[in-house]
Description:
about 450 residues; alpha+beta; 2 domains; seven-stranded antiparallel β-sheet; six-stranded antiparallel β-sheet; 16 helices; about 35% helix; about 25% strand; globular
Amino acid sequence: xxxxxxxxxxxxxxxxxxxxxxxTLDKKTTVSSKDEAIKIAKNxxxxxxxxxxxxxAGTLSYDIYKMTIDDKEEKLNTSxxxxxxxxxxKPLEVIxxxxxxxxxxxxxxxxxxxxxxxxxxxxxxxxxxYDKMRENLGxxxxxxxxxxxxxxxxxxxxxxxxxxxxxxxxxNMKSHLKPGDIILNGNDGGFIHGILYVGKDPxxxxxxxxxxxxxxxxxxxxxxxxxxLVVDEDKEIENNGKKEVIKAGGTGPIIDTIERFVQRHPRDxxxxxxxxxxxxxxxxxxxxxxxxxxxxxYDRGFNTFDDKEMYCTEFVMKAWLGTSNPPEFKTQKHPxxxxxxxxxxxxxxxxxxxxxxxxxxxxxxxxxxxMAASPSMDIxxxxxxxxxxxxxxxxxxxxNGVGGKVNADYKKMLDENVPGIASESKRIVEQIKxxxxxxxxxxx
Length: 444
C-alpha cells in the first residue's frame, strides 16, 4: 500500500447554504485489533476512518486512515457532523482501488470527540440509482410503496404443484444443521427469504414461551431461528383433529421457531447453506450479532447503508459480517420484484417467456441466490422436491446462458445483473439435485 497517497472518499455538505467540501483519506497504519484501532483513532487529533479487512489467513486486520475536509473550518467533531458526510458510490471499493487492498468487510468513522459511526458495509448497493430514488421519493415513509412490498414481496407465493415442506422434512433438515447455518426458502419461484438457524437456546426458548403464553418447556423440541419478516399474523391450523392457533412471531428481526414459521408461512422450496470456514466461535458470534438486531423494524426501503432497519437477507448477511471470519456474499440486481403470474398469464406465451427472468425494479441487493452462489458457502441440505422448483429451473437457464447456449443478449443480461452468481448456477443445480435425492432416500 502507498501510505503517501491522498485520495477523495466523499464530500462534506451541511445543506443548501453551504458549498460541499472534498473529504480525503491518508493511510496511517494497520493493526490487528479493532479495540487497538479505535484507541489509536481516539488518541489522535481529528477524525479517522477504520477499515476492517479479512486477511488471507482468515483473520481480520484494521487499516486506519486520517480523514481531512478541504475547508479547514469544518471538522467531523461529533456523530452529528458525520451525518453531513456524503460518500462516493461504493466507498470501500474506492479505497481498495486507490490502495491496492482487498477483502474489505466494513468500516467505521471515529469523530474527533471519540464518537463511533454505524458500520459502513462492503456492499455494492449503498448509493445506487435505486437507493437515491428511494430516498428522494421518500419510500421509507410511502404507504403505497409499503403496500407493494407487503402484498407483492411479503405475501406467500401462489399455490403450485409442489407440496409444502412438512414436519418430517424439517426434522431431517435439523439433523444436518449446526447453529449459525442459513436457511433459504420460499415457494417455488418466490424463493426470497433467509433465516439464521440457532437450534437449541434455552434463553430464547423461554422468551418465546413467555411471549406466546405457553407452558415452560413447550418448545424444547423445536428449532429456534432468527429472521426478519415483513408481514406476519396468527394462523389457525388443524392438529390431530383439533384446531390450534399458531401465534405470530412479529415483524422485523424476531425470535421464532422453524416449525411454527412454516406453519404460518408454508414453504415448498428450502435449502440450507453453511460458511465453509465456520467454527463454533464464529457460529456463536453470528448468532450473538443476530440477537443484537432483534427488535429493529423491517426495512421496506431495502437500504443496506445502515442498520436502523433490516430486510431478511440483509439481517442474515450482517449477522455473519459481524464475526471474526466473515464469509463472502454476492449481490444481484435482478430481479427485485418479479412480474406477477397474473400479468404473465395474460400475455402471449412468447412475450411471457421473454419476461420470465425480468423484474419491476432493479436494485443491487443481497438475496438468496447470492448466498447460495458464494464460493465461501456450501449447500448442505435441500428439501426432497427442491430439484423440481422454479429456482432450479431458473439456475439451469442461467447456467445455459453463461455457457452461450441461449443467445448473446441473454448472456449480457446475466453478466450485468447477476455477476458472479450465474457462473455458479451449474454448481448450485448439481448440488441441489444430489441433496434432494439424499433427503428422499433418508425419508423412505
